[in-house]
Write a structure and sequence with these properties.
Number of domains: 1
InterPro entries: Archaeal_FAD_synthase (IPR050385), Cyt_trans-like (IPR004821), RfaE_dom_II (IPR011914), Rossmann-like_a/b/a_fold (IPR014729)
EC number: 2.7.7.70
Radius of gyration: 15 Å
Distance between the termini: 39 Å
Strand order of the largest sheet: 1-4-3-2-5-6
Organism: Mitsuokella jalaludinii
CATH class: Alpha Beta
Low-confidence stretches: none
GO molecular function: ATP binding; nucleotidyltransferase activity; phosphotransferase activity, alcohol group as acceptor
Number of strands: 6
Oligomer: single chain
Mean pLDDT: 92
Strand content: 15-25%
Largest sheet: 6 strands, parallel
Helix content: 40-55%
Structural class: alpha/beta
Pfam family, one: CTP_transf_like
Shape: globular
CATH architecture: 3-Layer(aba) Sandwich
């Protein structure tokens, strides 16, 4: 379910008061693949409710370059929101998820194993209120970049 960024803080307050353990992760999720599905299932296993922060088209272009994303933010939100592991999707336009994390205040923040506490700017916010950060190993060979390269090679 896509939640307006202006409403996410109130929703998460309600969930916390109801005793729900909120997990948050974020990313582009441009061309969904098995690596994404496994990652999101693992993230969801850390709590009762998974909130996925989805980069807007503008922030994906800023992070990945002018040829990305392949799919629009609303299409990406619809696809990831349809996964059973994802409870809520919220769009954010900043380069990092720090602002949206400050609103969600997840009990657990999950990122890929290619990050560390030192390279993850959002970690300090989560730790400041007693939340924890978990890292999930990525599935080898599964990435949107690899999918795009495979398609390009098929065209040649």
């Amino acid at each position: 379910m896509l939640i307006d960024p202006n409403d996410i803080e109130k929703l998460c307050e309600i969930l916390h008061r109801a005793g729900e353990k909120i997990v948050f992760t974020n990313g582009c999720f441009d061309i969904l693949h098995a690596g994404h599905v496994r990652y999101l299932e693992k993230a969801r296993s850390f709590g009762d409710c998974l909130v996925l922060g989805l980069n807007t088209d503008a922030s994906v272009r800023g992070n990945k370059g002018p040829s990305r994303p392949i799919n629009s933010e609303l299409d990406r939100a619809e696809v990831v929101g349809a996964l059973k592991s994802v409870d809520y999707v919220v769009l954010f336009g900043e380069k990092t998820a720090e602002t949206i994390i400050a609103k969600v205040r997840p009990d657990v923040y999950v990122k890929g194993g290619d990050y560390t506490l030192e390279t993850l700017p959002e970690a300090k916010i989560v730790q400041s209120y007693g939340g924890r950060v978990e890292f999930v190993q990525m599935v080898a060979g599964r990435s949107t970049t690899n999918v795009i390269e495979k398609i390009k090679n098929m065209e040649g």
